[in-house]
Write a structure and sequence with these properties.
By secondary structure, the protein is an alpha+beta fold. It contains four helices and four strands.
């Protein structure tokens, strides 16, 4: 699961956002840099969450305000590309605010809500 995907997931049970990400296996898969794509995605992201994840994954400090389409800050855009598109969570869990856990296995988050029958 790319970190970009993580930024669009919410708990299907409670509809809360964001989920807490606890990765156990992370890999980097290089992709071609696409400045236009990054610039189009920025307005759709929760910038505070992007900054938090950047710190969590040791990418460093991002500016307090998201870059705009006319930015010349190529360094920040390349960092966002690496963070959002090249960083993949192979294994781990997503946790909702109510404690529901969604496992990530082989890069795929399982967002299905399973009901446990207490009578069994």
């Amino acid at each position: 699961m790319r970190l970009l995907t993580y930024h669009f997931l919410q708990c299907p049970k409670t509809k809360t956002f964001p989920l807490l990400l606890e990765p156990t296996q992370v890999e980097t898969i290089e992709t071609e840099y696409n400045k236009e794509f990054i610039l189009r995605m920025i307005p759709r992201l929760d910038w505070n969450l992007v900054r938090q994840v950047s710190k969590q994954f040791a990418f460093g400090e991002l500016p307090p305000v998201a870059p705009h389409n006319d930015t010349t800050d190529e360094e920040t855009l390349r960092l966002l590309h690496k963070l959002l598109l090249e960083t993949h969570i192979k294994e781990g869990v997503l946790k909702s605010q109510d404690g529901t856990i969604y496992p990530i296995k082989d890069g795929i988050p399982n967002m299905l809500i399973t009901q446990v029958n207490q009578d069994e």
